[in-house]
Amino acid sequence: MSASKRATLIGKLNTALKKHYKPLPAQPARPLLEHVLYASLLEDAPADLADEGMAKCEQEFYDWNEVRVTTVTELAQVLSGLPEPLIAARRMKGNLQAIFEEFYTFDLDHLKKDNLGKAVNKFDKMPAMTPFVLSYTVQHGLGGHSIPVDYSAMVVMLTTEIASQPEAMAGKVPGLERAIPKSKGIEFSGLLHQAAIALSKNIKDKTVRAFLDAVNKGSSKRLDDWLASKKAAKKRVVKRKVEEKAAAKAAAEAAALAAIEAAKNPPKKRKAKEAVKKEILTAKPAKKPVAGKKTAGKQEVVKKEAKKPVQKAAKKSATAKKAATKKAATKKAATKKAATKKSATKKAASKKASKKVSKKASKKVSKKTSKKVAATKKPSPAKKKTTSKKSPPKAKPVKKASSKKSTNRKLTKRKPR
What we know:
Layout: H1 3-20, H2 32-42, H3 47-60, H4 64-69, H5 72-78, H6 85-103, H7 116-124, H8 131-141, H9 151-159, H10 165-170, H11 176-179, H12 185-201, H13 206-215, H14 219-264, H15 270-282, H16 292-376, H17 384-413
């Protein structure tokens, strides 16, 4: 749709609203936080019920922090007069929590002095903030130019062809703030909200139908078509969900039956399967013979193939025998080596013992021979000093020779045990 055509339709909408509805009384001066909370209750609800819900919250709770701390069900009981109390309570509590986490206070009037774009960006980041609540706070609390449009008002825009389906999904009507000046923005938004709530209450309301046809001819018929398509879409969704549930149930039953059958008939062992495969491979049908030579060659090939498994088995048995003989030989060699080591250690021990015995015997013999030589040669008293000095070097080689001979004779006579 072109911008000029949309602007003309918005002008017609404004004139039709003034004809069929009266403007609402001006809202009292509130803090910025209360504008946010009031917009949370006013979305898709009449203005008088939103005023009542705001008053009840102020009476039932000590302050807005207590409202933030309460559960959604308790808050919904207080807001039971609204058309959708649970949704309104969830929206109100979510906005309170987001404001507290962002500013750590409920006094937001300092945002009026700041730039409008910064305040709008801070509010837009909040998860529970809807386009209607944001536009209402900008219009009434921050003094900006923004016209709030909720779901019920968007239905009016769709039926009059001011907004398309993608624009309605986005929640914004382009060119609305250009066509309606800022001085008339609050009045226009109040009248549009009245018409939208009247349409949501009763679709067959005559004043609403006349108002829609005054804006754009055939709008009431388009409304009926849209409602019928909406009902059909709902039915399709319900039908698809039922079919998905039935398919899931059937799949679960089939899986359960398969598990029961598997438990009753357990799978056979691998050996049986391998035997069956071998039988199938061996029992392949032979092709028809074409000529004598060819058939003879084929028969020889078949015989060779039949002999192959026998030859493989013989080779396997031969390799097994060779491995067994190798193992036996290694065991014998190991036992022989152990026996030789033991005998060598025993011989070495016996040799050491014999050497010790021979050394002891040689020492005893040398002592006896030295005593005999000393007894035979008694020196004179005058030459005692000289003989004592000269005798040791002459007697030493005689003693060593005698000890060596005696030790050698004894070693030859004795035999090792």
